[in-house]
Batch of 2 targets.
Target 1
Amino acid sequence: MKQENIRNFCIIAHIDHGKSTLADRILEVTGAIDKREMKDQMLDSMDLERERGITIKLNAVQLSYQKEGEVYQLNLIDTPGHVDFSYEVSRSLAACEGAILVVDASQGIEAQTLANLYLALDNNLTIVPVINKIDLPSADPEKVIKELENIGFSREEIVLTSAKTGVGIEELIHKVIEKIPSPKGKKNSPLKALIFDSLFDSYRGVITSIRVVDGIVKTGDKIKMMETGATYEVVGLSINTPKEEKVDSLSAGEVGYLYASIKSIEDVEVGDTITLEENPAEERLPGYKPMKPTVYCGLYPIDSNKFEDLREALEKLKLNDAALTYEPETSKALGFGFRCGFLGLLHMEIIEERIEREFNIDLIATSPSVVYEVLLTDKTKVMVDSPTKMPRREIISKTLEPYVKASIFTPSEYIGPIMELCQDKRGNFLNMEYLDETRVTIHYDSPLSEIVYDFFDRLKSSTKGYASFDYEINDYKESDLVKMDILLNGEVVDALSVIVHKDFAYSRGRIVCEKLKEIIPRQLFEVPIQAAIGGHVIARETVKALRKDVLAKCYGGDVTRKKKLLEKQKEGKKRMKQIGSVEVPQEAFLSILSTKE
Amino acid sequence: MANHCYIHIPFCERICSYCDFCKRYPYQEVVDEYLTALKKEIEDLYQQEELETIYIGGGTPSCLRIKDLETLFEILKPLKKKKEIEFTIEGNFESTTKEKLELYKKVGINRLSFGIESFHPKNLSFLERGLDISHIQEVLKEARSLGFDNINLDLMYALPTETIEEVKEDIQKILSLNPDHISTYSLIIEDHTKIKIKGEKPISEELDAEMYELICKELKKNGYIHYEISNFSKEKKESHHNLCYWDNKEYYGFGLGASSYLNHKRIMNTRSLTNYRIGKRVVEVEELDNHSTIEYEVLLNLRKREGIDLNHFKETYHKDFFELFLVEDLIQKKFLLVENNHLMIPEEKWYISNEIIVQILEREKYE
């Protein structure tokens, strides 16, 4: 393939603006798959992705397209759409020269449209703007064109499409070929290939997704990971069309998969550069900075025998999710588990779900915590990512918490409720910008801890889903923070402790106790639930003792039914954790998040 | 070896709002076909054991016409009866006549069981049942004079909107009828019943338990023995048939939707009359290994006042109960009691026995 006929591009969009459907349609139009084989959202290979409708694992597909007698190789690199995954977006961007920016024809520009656009521009990508879903009755392309004009695009370069009906797709592909530059790398230079994703396959070991920047890599080559120093022999190379096809080599500008019987996961770092052992490149590609987790929680197997399985699961997930961090942690209440770091709440939920589904481990997740900075009276500084690590109050001189700059994009009629919500979440108003007469971006300086709780849900419900939101970590600010403990049957359950702002502690304590009362089933004895700060009880509820749990009637000797019911009851208990003498259901550990009255 | 036998008569003239059991309107030809199929089932399965108990339940067996009852008893004739057999028939008062009682007497029935369920007009209308107290008294008087000295009455409680006062009145009224045995059941809102479809909700756990405690206290005060979670009797009037279930003994179950326990198998008959008639009787078989037999033994035995007979347990399963189930903590916390080599749930904990049984089963030591 002539290098000048290669185009590497990705699609970026706000969540739900039709990115995956658009990718499917491009696959179909280029003949990569025919209509019969078409499963909705072809690129999302995990069940979870298809169900949640969001792309959480990278995927690259190579397409072939003929235009004016020339054959072009189009490498479409899929990217996730959610704010939590902007790190993964930047990974995809590093492998591309251009990006299709998709905007929904009725929703218009939203917070993540802008966030992703700025990321792409930072990476020097050429942008092809697209207004999608023009078939919808509510579509208003003219309005969206104006919005795009407002952020610097010209009317002529915007393509109108309907991924659903196929309108505009050919035009879009032409635009991609015309506008996006071909890769610039040198085929004759020493090999430099960027690892932009990897996954573990039980037969072939680690499979890496690579973008060859300079040089050429062939099956049988001795390769070296420039960062980790590990060396391997290339066992195979392939491309995804979207069926896997073996190739003998990948050269400058091309995207594909490489496997080399890599059994040890630590040897492969996403973002690293692959070169040849003989004739190595002088320096690695810039890669990209790994993002730091902002939210931490403890993950514990309900069945304590599954601790090692959980470790293995985390190792495998980390392979294509460099942002995930974990280290062993012990809880008095929950036993052995891991303190895990995530990019945000959604990232956390997805990792939990993947562990439960793909690795079949029932989990208890403790309430998420951000990383606090605590200055002690002896002038030392500690970073606290778990309430259990909070030092005693007597030795603390100052506590600081991370703040974010939150950007909320909304129709102007919701300004009121949004401001109310932000004040409620301890936010400080920064400013407000109008995109046009009806759309506005509101900026708030807010504590991250408040954002990770239920901010997003409440934002959606108070704006009927119209507002969108994005945030970036800002800095640390002093806050009056305290550790609130929860006691069940008089004993502190460390996994339920949480760090809260002092002014909010009473109401939070009350809400959490009420919620726990709902969640914890009646037991053989009464269970007092208390919230306490430093031994001082601030809220209390009681789960009354069980009064009735009996199968009275026996119809015509049908005792099998009784046994089945008891077995079901017994089975249900397996989903609960015994803490002291109290049986606590999984969801109790997240009840601490609840702030609803 | 089964020495107990249940026979199901799936016919009712009215459908009570709470009933999810197997019932049909007794059209003559349906009854005829049913009895023919029942005869065939008994002939196919009965192994000539001498029976200690026979229980004809329903439905409403008493709603059959005299000649159908005669046919039924003819069908049951091949069943061998021990001399001291307990032979029960269920029914309602409305359909029970002097003629039927005389027929019962003639064929050897010695125990009668009637559903009354409630005395309060509001609750009766909720249950969609009728009540004619003078007719009840008349039937009971007739039965007594024919020599029936073992009569059970059913009482329900914990109906939506029912008050503790109403339960109190019901207890007084049922006591005034002087039954030998009383079965009490708190209402369960089962799927596919009229009340479930109407969206009725159960009363609070607290009130339900309070009603149960009241019933236990009042009946005990009046000389009834609370021998099993839901059943009370005068001395020596315990239902042997009822106890055969809780003693984990084998039994035949003939008829539509009936359950049986034979040769280590728990078998469930079809509820489809069409299938039953053509001999497609069995819908579910649970084959019991030693482990599940033991589980049944535990969960069934613990319904009784006397609980698990630990000697009998050891003889039957060749293992000491406490070697199999590590329940020391439950005994210490008084959720279980050991007395005279029996392990039982103390009466004041019966109403939460499910949870206790589940906890025992959880403490099973696997080898």
Note: The mean pLDDT of chain B is 94.
Target 2
Amino acid sequence: MKNENLYKYILGIADNSLILGQRLGELTGHGPSLETDIACTNISLDLFGQVRSYYQYAAKIAGDNRTEDDIAMLRKEREYVNVLLVEQPNTNFAYTIARQFLFDVYHFLFLTQLEKSKDLTLSAIATKSLKEVSYHQRFSTDWLKRLGDGTAESKEKMQEAIDGLWTYTDELFHQTEADKAMVSEGVGVDVTKLKEAYYEKVEAVLKEATLTVPESKWFQKGGKQGIHTEHLGYLLSDLQYMQRTYPNMEW
Amino acid sequence: MSEEQVKNLEEQFEARIARDEKIEPKDWMPEKYRKTHIRQMSQHAHSEIVGMLPEGNWITRAPSLRRKVALLAKVQDEAGHGLYLYSATETLGISREEMYEQLHTGKAKYSSIFNYPTITWADMGAIGWLVDGAAIINQVPLCNTSYGPYARAMIRVCKEESFHQRQGYEIMIKLANGTPEQKEMAQDALNRWWWPSLMMLGPTDAESIHTAQSMKWKLKRKSNDDLRQQFIDQTVPQAELIGLTIPDPDLKWNEERQSYDFGEIDWDEFWQVVKGHGPMNKERMKARVNAWENGAWVRDAAMAHAEKKQDRKEKKAV
Amino acid sequence: MSTKNWPLWEVFVRSKNGLEHRHCGSLHAADEEMALENARDVYTRRSEGVSIWVVESKHITASNPENNGEMFEPAQDKVYRHPTFYDLPDEVKHM
């Protein structure tokens, strides 16, 4: 592939939205109220919309016959390069909100930079996505505050979810080889530079939500290299089921 | 109020409906009107949200991204429609929580069709095409029903649902034009969903209670049997067009009636499912009850937070 | 079990600038921010709006249909409030 780095770079962005969108899709019909159910599905739909734009672009770069669905559904587990954070399960609504919030803050900062990319397609996708993600961030921030500063029970659950997912936050700022190549070409975002603003924002919201900022400095990594938690395999077996069971068919 | 006064009011009330006037929440209405509407509207709302489950079952497994977003949007619409209908029902003096309670304890019914399992992807096609098709036939006349909030909710619902049936039929077309395996999957889904879809339009007129009253209040414009005939007449050509066979050996065009004759419906199966013994009744209810109970702490937290915020605001104002 | 249920809110949506906000339905929410967000997610999924108002239903004061006679009928015979009450010579086409 001529533009292999660009291709890999796009997947690095898009896989996050794919896996998170899939996780949110699991919740449709099972939320704590009809209103929140509808809201979470909206976020899922936004993310899948972004995914399609990215993969369609990636397919064009690959230049063979592959389609957005081939990229989404026919890779092997080790070839998915999403961060570990987004594949974590919907243990309860606090985990769903914590995962969303911890990702949204990053996603927003990331897209703000991607908008300045020299690659006009990526920049255009970023501009469109930024509006969606601003809303996601607003939604998850509001809910984080509600659950953090709600009842004793909700506070405990929210704190547990934040503590549980904290270990996956540092990976957001790791650079891959494709990242470095794309940054040097003015196409990619230097994620290492987002770290400070990220933790500043996250900590401020946690405080407002009367939650404690976790002190642990032990972080997990590997998603960007395709080394995932055990949760991803099951998610993929659902995601890929049709394409694997009935290969080479149109739907 | 004396008996005579009530009778007088009732006559005026019926006359208003006969003149096609709408009844609004604060208007006087006979107790029976209120109760019948609470029953039918909440049942309708319950059907929307229980109806999310069989289709929700395939969201994570949709075969392409395009299908996935369409299905997500459709199931989400059903949540929206449930919400519109619950809200409209609340104008009659019952809360959403009370309605949930009735659903969860089995006191309230919902459309029995959702007690069948969705076991292949083609079921998403069959549900959209047949179940939504039958629902539309039921729902369009309700846009003109006598109770204002119900009619307005239905107008919104019908407008939004216009893509649902197409979404399902398009899935079926793709399968019917696909590989032999795909075509078989489509035919199998049609075989399983055809009869339950016919049943969905309600028991035969001979066995249907409430019909005369419902007609008068415009909760119903046509009898169940007429609706069923309409559904069959419109659906058979759609099946033929994509090369699928309706699983009814007695199905035959009747030149004289300009309609299809069709075979006997298994009403025993219908009543069995209505009474709670369908393949998925228990699972569906369990899913709803779990969602509600697991969400209790979330809803409580949101209320507690809102109160704290309000307190802080008031303290600041002092 | 929930102790207190989310209250009911009425939602008004302006479909585009230049038009008034119109009542489009109701929903449940714990506070005003949530009501606004829920309204956005529930009632503007198909680009139905550019502006939303939400108001908790209990804050709406409504007239009672029982008083419709005294409230609204007295206006019915005030035909002089309408332009058609006044005679104009045919030659004056627009006024």
Note: Chain C touches chain B at residues 1-6, 8, 24-28, 30-31, 34, 42, 45-46, 62, 64-66 (CB under 8 Å).
